[in-house]
What does this fold into?
Amino acid sequence: MITAAQGETVGYLHAVWQGIMAIVALSIAFNLRDFAYRIFQYSMDRSPVTPGAGFSPTVIRLATAVVGIILAISCMSNLLG
It folds into this structure.
């Protein structure tokens, strides 16, 4: 019985972690506090290899939107199922 309770706790913690990461990813996707541009500028200023022409804040927003949606769906399926 103790292991079943621990397994449920770990499952809930995993779902909560996915929810937090989904919120962070969607915050970047919705450009909260201009995070996408800050990530872009940080990588352009500090990277030893300059990112290519296809790398832009829009690409960062699209990628984090996809990751955020997937994490949100996974979080809800873990909590409901």
Remarks:
- Residues 19 and 75 are 6 Å apart (CA to CA).
- Helices lie at 2-29, 35-46, 57-80.
